[in-house]
Every structure is written in structure tokens, then in C-alpha cells.
Amino acid sequence: MFKVTAQDGLARCGLMVMKNTSSVTTPTPMLYTRRGGCLFLTPDNMDKLRPDAQMVQINAMQFIHLPSPDIIKSIGRSVHHYLGIPSWPVFASNRDPTMAEYFAAKSSSNTAVYANLYTGGTQVTPERYMQAIAALQPDMYVALADEVS
């Protein structure tokens, strides 16, 4: 749920309430992660960044291969616990802003998006992407981009 708490012209501040009853004020910076780990930050140091940073961004595509959705599901808990950050809201995107994941080496099709991951390039179907989302159990996620060529 999103609630507008202040507005000035087209700019607005708000409150996002997550499924686990935590909330995030907006705008807020999200901590960048690579394969789920915050670069150069341990969970105890991440907590020192609050209240400025209130959310962690992961790239769900990086959980297609290693670790796979099956590995995440085998621990019986969400990605929050897998990463050791149970109190942080997690936002799952389908891109890493530091990497060109979708490129013209191979085309996307009507049934899958071609993604260049750390483990190499692969076709990611909506079903495969949603398996990763279901295993990760993020607080919010971005739908798979429709980048059919």
C-alpha cells in the first residue's frame, strides 16, 4: 500500500507499507547489492545507515542460477534470512544497474527475455522469473520486462 504524506506540485512524499507490516518512507535510497550482498557492508554496518537508507535492492535475475530458487527454498525462509538481513525490506528488480544484462547478443522472443548473468547468458521465461520471486519472497518486486525484439 502507498499513502501520500506530502505533496508539492508533482513531487510527493509517501509511505509504503510492506506485507510484513514494515514501512518505508519515500523518497528513500536503496542499498545496492551484487548477488544479494551489499558491497563493503556487513549487516551490522548496514543498520548504521538507517534511517536514511531503509530498503535493500536485489536483482532477482541473479538468483536464477546460483543460488537457484531451489537453494533459496531449501533454507525454508525468505531471501531476508538467506542474506542475514531479516529486518530490512527487500525490493527485487530484474536488472543490475551496473551491468548490461539485456543486450543484442541473442534476441528475446515472445516467450522469454535473454539476460546476461554472472553465470552467462540465458533465456528467462516469465515462469522461471516468478519461480525466483516466489523463492526469494521479497517485499516488493518488478515484473519481468517485456523486451521482445
What do these coordinates show?
This protein has 149 residues and is an alpha/beta fold. The chain has helices at 43-47, 69-74, 79-82, 126-136; strands at 2-8, 11-17, 23-26, 30-31, 33-34, 37-38, 55-59, 90-93, 113-117, 120-124, 140-141. A 4-stranded parallel beta sheet has the order 4-7-8-11, with no helix packed on it. The chain has a 3-stranded antiparallel beta sheet with strand order 1-2-3, with no helix packed on it.
How is this fold's topology laid out?
Elements: E1 2-8, E2 11-17, E3 23-26, E4 30-31, E5 33-34, E6 37-38, H1 43-47, E7 55-59, H2 69-74, H3 79-82, E8 90-93, E9 113-117, E10 120-124, H4 126-136, E11 140-141
Parallel strand pairs: 4-7, 7-8, 8-11
Antiparallel strand pairs: 1-2, 2-3, 5-6, 9-10
How helix-rich are the residues, as a percent range? 10-25%
Please state the average pLDDT score: 83
Main beta sheet: 4 strands, parallel
Main β-sheet, spatial strand arrangement: 4-7-8-11
How many helices? The count is 4
Order of helices and strands: EEEEEEHEHHEEEHE
SS-derived structural category: alpha/beta
* Shape annotation: globular
The tally of beta strands, per DSSP, is 11
* Low-pLDDT sequence parts: none
